[in-house]
Every structure is written in C-alpha cells, then in structure tokens.
Amino acid sequence: MLKLFNLWDVLRITAVIVAALVVFIIMPFEDDNMNIVRYTSYFFLLLLTLSGICWKFFWNKVPFISNWLFPNLSGDWEFTITWQSICNDPESGTVKGSAKIRHTLFDLKISVNTDGSKSEVIDATPYKSPTKEKYLRYMYKNERQNTKSQTNTSHNGVVPQLKISDDFNTMKGDYFTDRGTKGQVSFRKIVN
C-alpha cells in the first residue's frame, strides 16, 4: 500500500519527465529511433537504482521534499499519554514510554512500548489536511506485560488525528480505546 504517493501521480510525473528527456535531449542527437528506447530504458534503470539507494538521504537533507510530500518520521521517539476513564469508575493517569518509527516511501511501521505494555500498530497513515497541515492516523492493539490480572489484558485503540509540528519533531493528539478510556498523547523525537 502506498503511504505517501498516489500511484497515478507518480506515473504521470514520470511520463512527463521521460517524454521531456526524449524530446529535448535524446532525439536531437540520435538518428536511430531504437537508441531512444535503449537510452530511455537506461534512464529508468538508473532512476530506480538511485531512488532505492538515495531516497532517504534526499528526504532528510532537502527540506523541500519534507514540506512538499511528507516529513520522514523515522527514528526513536518518547511519548507521554494522559488518560482518563469514561466509565462508571473515574480514573486517570499518565504513562510514559518509547516508540520506534520506520518510515519509507511506501510504508510506515510503529512500535510502542511502556514499562507495562507493548502496542502493535495495525495501520498507520500519514496525511495532509486541505490547509497542508501534516497528520498521522493510526490504530493499535495494546497488550499488557507481566500482569497478574486476567481482565483488561489487551485493548484496541485509535489515534485519529496526531498533528505533526512544523519542525517535524513533535506530534500531539487525542486517542480513544475500546476499554472505555480516552486521553491525549504527545510524541517527541529523540533520535533520527
């Protein structure tokens, strides 16, 4: 599943670039049209190789890419969750933990850990609002670790709108669970 690019946009832009290269650079210097096909094939092979090797370097070093497409969220993060129960027994608390995000052009993986639990992110989707603000939406399954109680050992949750700051180093938003809790979560990047 593509997470950052719309496949049709990528194909359209690639077709325009190749057509421009063929018309303005290769055709004026070639007599044989078969050479055009050969050079175009070489160009695609070179483009695929460079994108596979160099994408992360350019994504991190060229600010235009992060602003135009989406910021690279890869790295180690620390987070704080402030939660409250919305059931009959009003409880609340704060939990701190760590998260590791692996972000590529086509995938986004998040692992979240606290002293007492571990979360498996089921789906994570980066998106931009119509006003170009950047957000992350994800669903997760949380498993408690080393618990003696058999009740509430796991739960599912969703963070529908985690806002990414303009410097891409913090994220904040609300979350909701199927065990009757809600709250706020904030992430702070500690290592790229």
Q: Share of helix among residues?
A: 25-40%
Summing up helix and strand content along with how strands pair, one would put the structural category as alpha+beta
Poorly predicted regions are none
Strand fraction equals 35-45%
* Topology, number of strands: 8
Element string (H = helix, E = strand):
HHHEEEEEEEE
**Radius of gyration using CA atoms only:** 22 Å
* Helix count from the secondary structure assignment: 3
Distance between the termini: 24 Å
Oligomer: single chain
| Biggest β-sheet strands, sense, barrel | 8 strands, antiparallel, barrel
Question: What is the 3D form?
Answer: elongated
Write the layout of secondary structure elements.
Layout: H1 7-26, H2 33-61, H3 63-68, E1 75-85, E2 92-103, E3 108-114, E4 117-128, E5 134-144, E6 154-164, E7 170-177, E8 181-191
Antiparallel strand pairs: 1-2, 1-8, 2-3, 3-4, 4-5, 5-6, 6-7, 7-8
Helix pairs in contact: 1-2
Question: What does this protein look like?
Answer:
- The protein is of the alpha+beta class and 192 residues long.
- It is built from three helices and eight strands, in the order αααββββββββ.
- It has helices at 7-26, 33-61, 63-68; strands at residues 75-85, 92-103, 108-114, 117-128, 134-144, 154-164, 170-177, 181-191.
- The protein has an eight-stranded antiparallel barrel with strand order 1-2-3-4-5-6-7-8.
- It is elongated and about 80 Å long.
- The model has no long low-confidence stretch (mean pLDDT 82).
